[in-house]
Amino acid sequence: MADTLGLYEEARQLALDLGYVVREEVLGDLPGGLCAMQGRQHLLLNLEHGVAERLDKLLAALAADPRIESEPKSRLLEARLRALGSSP
Q1: Range 16-39 average pLDDT
Q2: What is the spatial distance between Cα 25 and Cα 80, in angstroms, rounded to a whole number?
Q3: Domain for residue 87, yes or no?
Q4: What is the pLDDT of residue 85?
């Protein structure tokens, strides 16, 4: 669990560094994800979901962003992003 929390915090900070507005809210049955509002990319994370599920949403958004290549990140985060980027 400690790895998941640390990875979640690192991924969240990377999203912020890339200019995403990261919003953690109670969304009911909504899964959350990326959306554009007022010309900015927002990443909605459902607080009713566990940390692992919220991490998956963060990783999916970051893996699709080509700007992550030039950003510093841990080996663990790099491996998780690479695995998502290479999957069909």
Answers
A1: 92
A2: 24
A3: no
A4: 75
